[in-house]
Specification:
By secondary structure, the chain is α/β, with parallel strands linked by helices. Helices cover 29% and strands 17% of the residues. α3 packs across α4 and α4 packs parallel to α5. The radius of gyration is 33 Å and the shape is globular.
């Protein structure tokens, strides 16, 4: 019996060592706070979240402008639609001054369209708004659908609008906004209007009218007015107050060359209203020229970015 005891102890020791090695190899006694993916610093590695790809909008129609005919305040009106690069794009309606017609916007329309297209129409003059070489660049990725039209009785410069009736032109402006909302491949709930002089009043008057009459089918988010003056029998200050009453988020910017009108709006505390003085800017389209500070053409881009949240 004395010889069996050492053998038994040796066998027991061998069994303990074997079990210990087996447990160590299996990893079953490793701390749960130290997973295989643990970093050298002792912190558990965090896998990056799965990235959700941004939705891709379908491409818009070809960039060439489309001739549009619609009914205005006194009969048939003509316009042009410049499609954006993608479908469901924001839409900008441009309204001219009394010195010309929709051709005042020839170069500006393709500039805002931003599809690398050259203006396909002859410009009737040599004023700066017909020379795109000085325009500030539209940021890459931005492309607006653009609609231009001629008010009743208006011809290209220098003839312009020999006779105009405020009530008729107001009806023209509203009809243009309504027609624009129906154009294909645009988002009728992301519309804005920009106008010069008489068109400056048309822009904000028609923007407000659209919001009141479209019954949820279209929305004008803002109006930029170059030298408004209540020319369509609606005071500009009344139009601004009505616009924000019916759409508190609507944006109203006024660019002017130094007149003191509408100071009541400056003190009204409307967060979406801005009155911007352009030194030596002149009136209406006169502000569409290089060398001004601030530069109204850049302000057009800033306004659209503000309106459309870009």
């Amino acid at each position: 019996m004395k010889t069996a005891r050492p053998f038994f102890l040796f066998f027991a020791l061998l069994l303990v060592v074997s079990l210990a090695c087996s447990r160590q190899g299996s990893g079953s006694d490793l701390p749960t706070s130290a997973p295989i993916s643990e970093t050298e610093s002792g912190q558990a590695a965090t896998l990056p979240p799965t990235q959700t790809p941004a939705p891709t909008l379908p491409p818009g129609p070809p960039p060439e402008p489309q001739e549009i005919v619609f009914t205005g305040g006194q009969g048939e009106l003509r316009g042009r639609y410049y499609p954006a690069a993608t479908a469901s794009a924001p839409l900008v309606v441009l309204m001219h001054w009394v010195g010309g017609d929709m051709t005042d916007w020839n170069e500006i329309a393709v500039w805002l369209q931003n599809r690398g297209q050259q203006n396909p129409y002859p410009n009737p003059g040599t004023d700066p708004w017909w020379d795109s070489t000085w325009f500030p660049p539209v940021p890459p990725g931005r492309s607006y659908a653009v609609f231009i039209f001629s008010f009743t009785g208006c011809q290209p410069a220098p003839e312009g609008c020999q006779n105009w009736i405020p009530d008729v032109w107001l009806a023209d402006a509203i009809a243009a906004m309504q027609k624009a909302a129906e154009l294909p491949d645009v988002d009728p709930h992301r519309m804005a209007a920009i106008g010069s002089s008489i068109g400056a009043d048309g822009a904000i008057d028609a923007c407000d009218a659209l919001n009141q009459t479209a019954q949820g089918q279209a929305t004008c988010l803002g109006a930029l007015s170059l030298s408004p003056g209540g020319y369509l029998n609606v005071e500009y200050s009344d139009a601004v107050l009505s616009l924000v009453e019916h759409n508190p988020n609507a944006v109203a910017w006024r660019l002017h060359g130094g007149d003191t009108a509408y100071q009541n709006l400056d003190s009204a505390g409307i967060p979406t209203y801005r009155s911007i003085f352009i030194p030596d800017g002149g009136h209406g389209n006169d502000m569409l020229r290089p060398g001004l500070a601030p530069l109204p053409m850049q302000l057009i881009l800033d306004f659209l970015a503000r309106v459309f949240g870009e």
